Structures are given as structure tokens and as C-alpha cells.
Amino acid sequence: MLIIGIAGGSGSGKTTVVNKIIKSLPGNSVTVIPQDAYYKDNGHLSPEEKKKINFDHPESIEFELLIRQLDGLIAGNSIDMPIYSYVTCARSRDTIRMNPGRVMIVEGILILTNKELRKRFGIKIFVDADSDDRLMRIIRRDIEERGRNYKQALLHYETFVKPMHEQFIEPTKRYADIIVPMGGQNKVAIDIISSRIRMNLDYNIQS
Q1: Domain ranges in the chain?
Q2: What gap in Å lies between CA 112 and CA 118, rounded to an integer?
Q3: Which one of 6, 33, 75, 104 has the fewest CB atoms closer than 10 angstroms to its CB?
Q4: What tens digit of pLDDT does each residue of 114-137 get?
Q5: Which of 92, 102, 110 has its CA nearest to residue 32?
Q6: Helices 14-23 and 187-206 sit at what angle, rounded to 10 degrees?
């Protein structure tokens, strides 16, 4: 089993990189664990309090649960992964049943900030992108998926996303084995990563 951590700033193209890697590998060989599923449940907060939640700070993630469930998958067990809504800031009562794969990808902006989680990764990847490109993607996503208008999305970026990126996320580049510039548009880097993963899968099958 190969465990891969894919980090990078918000809007850097991590999901695109993950999806392109998955497409290059044999069907049903990859299990993806998104960090976003492990945001702490804040459904009890008032609407005004929810607006102040800092989703870009490491303390917003329940890393203990993420690590415990990842360890369960590594041990060959299935898990019930949480479902989190950015709109309600709450976890659903429902969960998603996840089964172990030969390749496990953990993806999220903050995953390389946690030392214990980093220990589980056989490959650590940081997806990099120009800050202007990330800003445009973040604003579009916040409007389309998270119920914010343009002004709210820009204020959220200035208040939380940008300073947290500089304080917590950008410094985790130093932990990466591979840095992917230009995000999901970097076909050469994605091909190299995919080839490395396929080699690992072939080796495990032969041995």
C-alpha cells in the first residue's frame, strides 16, 4: 500500500492533480481521503459566529480522527468517513463508507502541517500555483459552492486565506518530496508522479 499526501494552497489545483493521477491508474486502485471531510463540527454556532470560522488554520481540522481513520484503512479495515458542509459548517449524520485501496491519497491544504500525519506518507506532494490564479479560483468556488457573494469571498480571502497561507501552508513546501508548479496544468509533473505510482503498484504485484 502506498500512502500519498497532496497539499498546496487553496485554489492551487490539488483536486485536478488528484483526478488526473486517478485517471492514469488502474480502476478501483485508489482511495482518496479529503482533509475537508474532517473539519470540526460547528453546526451549533450562530450565523454570525460561523462567518468568523477560520477554515485555513490547522486547529480547524480534527486531525486525531483523520489519523485514526487513515490508520484503520492502512490496517485493511473500512471506515465511515464524515461528510462536512461549508454552507452549514456542520457534519452530516450520514457518513461515506470508504474501503482501503492499493494507493491512498490524502488531500488538503493543511495536511503537511501535522507531524504525525506526515509520518504516514510515502510520498509528499505540494501543488503550487500563482497567487492571482488561486485568488480567481477561490472567488469562483466561494460564490458557486459556499454561498458567498463577491464582496464576502474577497473579504474572506483577505482576512483568512492569504494570511493563513503565508503562515501555515506555504512553509510546508519544505516537507514535500515533489513540488508541482502550475497545479493541474503541469502535465509533465503529473505524468512523472503517475509513473512512479504505477511502478510501485507493479512491484507490489510481482512481489
Answers
A1: 2-206
A2: 6
A3: 75
A4: 999 999 999 999 999 888 888 888
A5: 102
A6: 50
What is the percentage of the chain residues whose pLDDT exceeds 70?
98
**Rama region for 183: left / alpha / beta (φ>0; ψ in -120 to 50; rest):** left
Neighbours of 76 (CB within 10 A): 9
Nearest to 124 by CA among 168, 174, 162, 190: 174
Angle, CA of 113, 116 and 121, to the nearest 5°: 85
C-alpha cell at 22: 486517478
Written as nine digits, the cell of 89 is 459548517
Specify the CATH superfamily of domain 2-206.
Answer: P-loop containing nucleotide triphosphate hydrolases (3.40.50.300)
Within the chain, residue ranges assigned H as helices are 14-23, 47-50, 63-74, 115-118, 131-145, 150-156, 162-164, 187-206
List, in sequence order, every residue forming a beta bridge with 62; answer none if it has no partner: none
* Model confidence at 206: pLDDT above 60: no
The CA-atom distances, in angstroms, between 86 and each of 2, 109, 124 are 30, 15, 26
DSSP 168: I
pLDDT score of 146: 76
Q: Compute the CA torsion angle 152, 153, 159, 160 (nearest 10 deg).
A: 130
Q: Enter the DSSP assignment of 122.
A: S
Report pLDDT digits (tens) over 30-64.
999 999 999 999 989 998 888 888 999 999 999 99
* Contact criterion met (CB below 8 Å) for 14 and 127: yes
